[in-house]
Design brief:
alpha/beta; globular; Rossmann fold; single chain; seven-stranded mixed β-sheet
Amino acid sequence: MAASILISLFFTGFGEARRLGKLPSWAKNASHLVDQPAFLQSDQMALVIGNSSYPDADAPLLQVANDAIALVSALLKKGFQVDLIQNATHADTQSAIDRLKARVDRNSIVLIYFGGFAVQSRGQSYVMPVDAKIWDEKDVRRDGLSFDGLLSELKDAGAHVRLAVIDASRRNPYERRFRIYSRGLAALQAIDSTLILTSAEPDCVVDDLGGVNSPLMIKLLNEMDSTTRSIEETFKEIGIAESLPSNDSHP
């Protein structure tokens, strides 16, 4: 098998942010399997999780909400079956993961997007559902979902190619309760045939910049729009682009 490729990118700017009009009806629900025409390929599947409204956060993560909707539209054009979840609880997220695993086979190309907050614990990155109750580190492993674990589950379920976009390397309202600074994401474990895009290098954080979409999503959407390459080739193309330094982990 091809060696795993771990790509950590933070783009300080690329083109202009995309502006979204009125959300389509399917985008307003917390969880929805987006319908696609029967002629589209059924072996390309995506789970898009956009958690933009956390009760413990000072303000909504507006770019996350926009990024999730924009990515769904781009993936539909590429022939993906898409399951969109917005502001998902732990139960919502686990149900969507179970739905995805039930549909995967050895020919599947699976893409996972998570936008929101994540917390590093014991060398793993745990993505946070909106109902997480985090007061100390053990709560992270109880209420969060291990992203490494999710990728391993997809491999065990038989997915041939796994793609991941993780926009969660931001300061969050949880770590300040038990740490002096946010640690960002841990280095994700290498798994055969996995391609990963993150908004910052391991152990680093970035602040959301102005604009409708995040710099990472702008780059990804522009690449997906401007080429007829497969989604895997698009990920690899982004990976060889110049990466600029991220902010460090300290406040």
